[in-house]
Design the sequence.
């Protein structure tokens, strides 16, 4: 493809984010590529693996206890995106640390561990144990705090809505993570995302990921009721790209903290929109679901022509 | 739950072109897709298909694989929603995207157990392919359709036992049992007696439950191909889970991905009291 003249970056070259050197700027988003152990054996005519050129896989969000997630149906596909209500199904922190993370290291998958919890105070012990176990791992590059998943019904999960709560979560995690990047994934479902970003930065995070999903709802016309058992879910995909760009721009212009852009990226051109606004890296999410090679193609297509 | 141990060919992500896309019954359409390269699959596996280009669907759609001939892979589908409606409009030469084969297939034949294959409606491909690839003289293949027009007669030779819920529109030269396919199987002379058998079934949930009931009554093994709405189809999103028994787990059950651990499950592994019916007839 013809790259614009202003784009002179090699997205597959190492770059610094906080205290950590990442292998590249094209990542996959949490929840869209499992833990980074799926799809290694899928082949294609034009790329050797779905992981080639990726800077990081952000893992499926891990919680202190295993979670079986929400009842089916968990997805509502629309012409413009999809609404998901997976419910943070995950193996739980202990199993992740004992089995999943070592497997990622053994396979050489660059990764950022996504964590969620019911109270800010839970983040400290999890990050402490992570560091104790994995500080010698070459491929573990950071932690992304998921403060904004709209699919969990318990009260007290809406950390992402106030700067104070965001700051508490970052403050709980930061002391235990000194040589890895600490990111916070921000919700767009609130008025002033730049305030959240500023609070996260002031509390010590290295970057923010923006945006998480937008609260959405789909109606089943046969029944007249919402499709998803919990009524609402997280809307992602092409339809949220302009929303994500607006939020990323607000953070870059007003909060002055590094941004990893995410929301609706399906192509190299979509990724370029985020880079144009000042994002330092991007995550590819929903579009991975229709093709495991999508992120790798974005990375390949953004490389300078040799 | 013990994972079924059946060797599977590598999964491929590639493009394809529609060779033909035509009705084989009043409700079923056969899609023949010529892939960029030859692909392989084991009976019971499926593929995720999408249209190609800027108007593609956000999620690919899961289609059971009917047959493969070199690089040409064949599927059967019904129009049940926006995605399948888009597929039905594809003309020969249209580009598509393919990801497959995916999923856990049916087991290989057991020498001491003849097979009982039960397919209902759009559930035909996995059992038809198993029968075509593995079928032996003692195996019995059963198909159930809604009425005579709904049966894809051209795909079912004289060995098949065929049932229809409604006997109208039967072709002059074919006969069909009037009733449910599992009722037909229960009454079939060829399935009488004490011979242990293996049931492999694919179709709507009531058919699967009836096949499991029949198998339990007769002491037969039973493998069911389940169907769920899917997101990715390859294990990345957890959008397609089925509850299975897990005695070692805290609550005695856990979620299994229909796309990876399934779609074929041993019937006795399914946590039936938790397994609901996906509203697949509303949007696919």
Sequence:
């Amino acid at each position: 493809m013809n790259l614009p003249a202003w784009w002179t970056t090699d997205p597959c070259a190492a770059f610094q984010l906080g205290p950590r050197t990442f292998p590249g700027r094209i990542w996959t988003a949490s929840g869209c590529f499992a833990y980074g152990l799926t799809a290694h054996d899928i082949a294609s005519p034009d790329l050797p693996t779905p992981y080639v050129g990726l800077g990081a896989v952000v893992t499926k969000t891990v919680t202190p206890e295993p979670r079986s997630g929400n009842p089916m149906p968990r997805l509502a596909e629309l012409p413009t995106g999809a609404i998901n209500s997976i419910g943070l199904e995950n193996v739980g922190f202990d199993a992740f640390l004992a089995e999943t993370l070592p497997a990622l290291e053994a396979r050489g998958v660059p990764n950022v561990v996504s964590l969620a919890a019911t109270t800010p105070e839970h983040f400290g012990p999890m990050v402490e144990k992570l560091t104790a176990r994995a500080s010698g791992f070459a491929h573990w590059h950071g932690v992304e705090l998921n403060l904004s998943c709209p699919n969990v019904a318990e009260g007290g999960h809406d950390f992402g809505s106030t700067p104070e709560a965001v700051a508490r979560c970052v403050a709980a995690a930061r002391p235990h993570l000194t040589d890895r990047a600490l990111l916070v994934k921000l919700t767009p479902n609130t008025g002033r995302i730049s305030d959240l970003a500023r609070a996260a930065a002031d509390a010590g995070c290295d970057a923010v990921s923006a945006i998480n999903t937008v609260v959405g709802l789909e109606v089943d016309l046969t029944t007249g009721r919402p499709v998803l058992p919990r009524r609402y879910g997280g809307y992602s995909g092409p339809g949220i790209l302009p929303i994500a760009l607006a939020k990323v721009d607000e953070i870059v212009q007003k909060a002055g903290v590094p941004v990893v852009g995410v929301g609706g990226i399906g192509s190299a051109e979509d990724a370029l929109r985020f880079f144009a606004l000042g994002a330092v890296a991007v995550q590819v999410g929903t579009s991975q679901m229709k093709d495991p090679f999508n992120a790798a193609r974005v990375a390949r297509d953004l490389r300078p022509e040799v | 739950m013990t994972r079924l141990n059946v060797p599977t060919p590598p999964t491929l992500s590639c493009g394809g072109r529609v060779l033909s896309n035509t009705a084989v019954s009043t409700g079923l359409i056969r899609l023949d897709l010529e892939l960029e390269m030859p692909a392989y699959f084991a009976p019971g596996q499926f593929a995720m298909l999408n249209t190609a280009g800027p108007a593609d669907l956000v999620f690919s759609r899961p289609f059971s694989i009917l047959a493969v001939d070199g690089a040409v892979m064949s599927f059967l589908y019904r129009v049940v929603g926006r995605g399948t409606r888009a597929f039905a409009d594809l003309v020969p030469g249209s580009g598509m995207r393919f990801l497959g084969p995916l999923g856990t297939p049916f087991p290989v034949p057991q020498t001491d157990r003849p097979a009982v294959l039960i397919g209902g409606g759009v559930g035909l491909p996995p059992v038809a392919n198993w029968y075509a690839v593995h079928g032996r003289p003692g195996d019995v293949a059963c198909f159930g359709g809604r009425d005579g027009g709904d049966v894809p007669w051209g795909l079912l030779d004289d060995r098949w036992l065929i049932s229809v819920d409604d006997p109208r529109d039967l072709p002059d030269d074919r006969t069909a049992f009037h009733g449910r396919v599992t009722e037909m199987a229960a009454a079939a002379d060829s399935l009488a007696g004490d011979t242990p058998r293996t049931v492999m079934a694919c179709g709507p949930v009531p058919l699967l439950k009836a096949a499991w009931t029949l198998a339990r009554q007769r002491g037969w093994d039973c493998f069911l191909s389940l169907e769920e709405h899917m997101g990715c189809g390859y294990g990345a999103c957890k959008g397609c889970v089925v509850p299975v028994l897990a005695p070692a787990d805290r609550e005695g059950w856990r979620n299994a991905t229909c796309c990876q651990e399934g779609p074929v499950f041993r019937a006795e592994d399914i946590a039936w009291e938790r397994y609901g019916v996906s509203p697949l007839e509303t949007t696919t």
